[in-house]
């Protein structure tokens, strides 16, 4: 009891709490003359005034004397328009209009047609506010004035519109006349630069050396460390699985002095380009190529590309131009997954709410695209319109298979693959090896999911182990198989996977997933470190072998493993390997065949090599592997080219002597 009394004396509010499940209303006499905080059902208004010493507001119940009465009230709500003026920064006049509030439903009904499609101009609101410098009026002035001259216009509507015209005309006429004069002479100054860009117009710029068109949306002047700039927000068509969409583009124009040609700007309206007709057609054709390249594509490439690298310990990225001449896989989804620092984001293309408002043959174009995932069998997916093709970005995202780089690839440099269909038949291998390899490959692709292990997901792939000394043709075999199957060759080495168990697991999972997605032939070259038999004195390597064993068992594609040390592989691999081929050292007859095969690729007609059968026989007597033969001929041919003559036996002999090989 003493404890209860003590608590009540310390916490009198407890007396107002719940007693046996019932709430109790507060009573003033229960806690003196005070009511508990927040329990009185009323509100109070406080008024703030700024205190410079405190650098904060001081709140009081008294209404401040220095606050002017609100200018907009029930009386102003009856007006068709409200014109708000402020002190002018122009020395030629004392006041200028800050903004206009349009309240007349008659005016808004007319302007909804004149300003159709203009951004940030909502005329469905009860009060529509338009700020200086009155972009909608500047860009649609001819449409606005033509409505005033329409004889079918009702008298009351005409009076309301004339009222608006009288207020706005003095503000925009100078700008309109100035811009018309600039456009006529194809020049502009920085002050009126914003006015030459009408929302919806097609703009022209250069991106990574490639011409590009975009749809202009809005602009604003900004202050930066490098001075004043005009920031332009535009949008282009890009691909983000499973659909085409709008990608936002942020373009800038730095402040410049005096007037300059419009076409000298880094971005300007396409119609101001003297060759805009030809440019339009070229960009539309490139857009068609872009459209056909979206999704997963296996192609050849010859040209410049851009590699976007994230700087270490930083959110900044650096773009590096690289020369690429190799096979590629176009896969935007995988690019974004492995390059989050350069991810592409798009927003949907709406059906009929988005229209291009530019006055051209693309005017009021409707954008409609069906996501691929929703296209039913037997139905053709809707294609992009010509206007959308015009606005497609100039690059696709993909992977260079030989140099193992994720790149932004120029659409114009993507080529069809010219397969070397004779590569497999020209392999210097026993015929039964070739027959077995071809049977394994074709059956795996045709009946990939027909056989499975007892455990779901296991045993669907095929693993082939190639063993032998360096230069005996293991890698060439895999390359030739990929040519026959018309499939990408995705190759990795032990160095690419690393030696840390955590990174090996992650990189191996990524590689196997990509190879499966691309239906690629996967080559893990010289993977001895992952195949070597486990031992009790090297737990780190044991873990790597275990990871490798477990991972390849669940792989569903075609995998080649190559090793130079067949005798040392872990016994557990024998049950995971479906076919094991051992490559013996090359005999003289095989070496002669390899020499002849490489020589046949050097020159045609008068440029053909000048080596005889006897010369080839002498070369075949040397104990060289396939890789060495290839390197000798490559160096010899360079020597012949420097002398501007055909490849001769003495060229090859000179190179071999440098290599310390004696030729009779």
From TrEMBL:
Q: Which domain of life is it from?
A: Eukaryota
Annotated InterPro entries: AAA+_ATPase, ATPase_AAA_core, DUF7025, P-loop_NTPase
Q: Which CDD domains match?
A: RecA-like_protease
Cite the GO molecular-function annotations of the record: ATP binding; ATP hydrolysis activity
Q: Name one Pfam family in it.
A: AAA
Domain named AAA+ ATPase: which ranges? Answer: 460-585
Kindly give the SMART domains that the UniProt entry links to this protein: AAA
Name recorded for this polypeptide: ATPase
């Amino acid at each position: 009891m003493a404890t209860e009394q003590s608590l009540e004396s310390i916490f009198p509010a407890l007396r107002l709490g719940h007693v046996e499940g019932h709430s109790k209303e507060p009573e003033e006499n229960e806690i003196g003359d005070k009511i508990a905080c927040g329990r009185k059902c009323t509100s109070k208004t406080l008024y703030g005034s700024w205190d410079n010493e405190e650098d904060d507001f001081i709140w009081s119940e008294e209404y401040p004397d220095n606050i002017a009465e609100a200018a907009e009230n029930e009386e102003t709500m009856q007006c068709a328009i409200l014109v708000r003026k402020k002190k002018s920064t122009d020395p030629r006049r004392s006041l200028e209009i800050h903004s206009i509030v349009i309240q007349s439903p008659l005016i808004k009904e007319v302007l909804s047609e004149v300003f159709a499609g203009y951004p940030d101009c909502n005329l469905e609101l009860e009060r529509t506010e338009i700020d200086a410098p009155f972009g909608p009026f500047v860009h649609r002035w001819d449409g606005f004035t033509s409505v005033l001259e329409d004889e079918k216009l009702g008298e009351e509507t005409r009076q309301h519109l004339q009222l608006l015209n009288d207020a706005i005309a003095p503000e925009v006429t100078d700008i309109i006349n100035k811009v018309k004069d600039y456009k006529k002479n194809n020049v502009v100054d920085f002050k009126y630069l914003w006015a030459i860009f009408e929302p919806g117009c097609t703009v022209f710029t250069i991106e990574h050396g490639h011409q590009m068109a975009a749809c202009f949306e809005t602009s604003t002047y900004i202050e930066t460390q490098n001075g004043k700039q005009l920031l332009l927000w535009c949008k282009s068509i890009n691909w983000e699985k499973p659909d085409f969409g709008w990608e936002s583009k942020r373009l800038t124009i730095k402040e410049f002095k005096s007037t300059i040609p419009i076409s000298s700007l880094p971005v300007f309206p396409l119609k101001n380009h003297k060759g805009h007709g030809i440019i339009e057609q070229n960009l539309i054709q490139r857009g068609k190529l872009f459209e056909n390249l979206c999704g997963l594509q296996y192609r050849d490439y010859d040209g410049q590309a851009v590699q976007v690298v994230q700087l270490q310990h930083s959110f900044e990225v650096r773009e590096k131009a690289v020369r690429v001449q190799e096979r590629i896989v176009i896969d935007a989804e995988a690019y974004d997954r492995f390059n989050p620092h350069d991810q592409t984001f798009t927003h949907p293309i709406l059906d009929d709410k988005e229209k291009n408002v530019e006055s051209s043959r693309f005017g009021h174009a409707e954008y409609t695209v069906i996501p691929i995932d929703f296209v039913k069998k037997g139905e053709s997916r809707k294609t992009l319109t010509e206007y959308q093709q015009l606005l497609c970005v100039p690059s696709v995202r993909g992977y260079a298979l030989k140099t193992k780089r994720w790149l932004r690839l120029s659409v114009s440099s993507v080529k069809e693959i010219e397969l070397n269909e004779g590569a497999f038949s020209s392999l210097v291998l026993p015929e039964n090896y070739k027959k077995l390899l071809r049977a394994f490959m074709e059956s795996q692709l045709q009946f990939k999911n027909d056989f499975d292990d007892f455990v779901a997901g296991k045993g669907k792939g095929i693993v082939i182990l190639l063993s032998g000394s360096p230069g005996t043709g293991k890698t060439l075999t895999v390359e030739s198989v990929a040519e026959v199957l018309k499939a990408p060759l995705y190759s990795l080495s032990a160095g690419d996977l690393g030696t840390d168990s955590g990174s090996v697991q992650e990189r191996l999972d990524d590689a196997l997933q990509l190879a499966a997605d691309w239906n690629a032939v996967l080559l893990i070259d010289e993977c001895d470190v992952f195949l070597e038999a486990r031992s009790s004195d090297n737990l780190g390597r044991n873990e790597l072998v275990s990871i490798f064993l477990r991972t390849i068992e669940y792989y569903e594609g075609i995998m080649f493993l190559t090793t130079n040390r067949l005798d040392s592989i872990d016994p557990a691999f024998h049950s995971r390997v479906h076919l094991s081929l051992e490559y013996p050292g090359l005999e003289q007859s095989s070496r002669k065949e390899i020499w002849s095969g490489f020589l046949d690729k050097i020159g045609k007609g008068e440029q053909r090599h000048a080596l005889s059968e006897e010369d080839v026989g002498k070369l075949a007597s040397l104990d060289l592997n396939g890789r060495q033969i290839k390197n000798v001929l490559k160096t010899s041919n360079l020597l012949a080219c420097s002398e501007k003559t055909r490849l001769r036996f003495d060229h090859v002999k000179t190179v071999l002597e440098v290599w310390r090989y004696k030729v009779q």
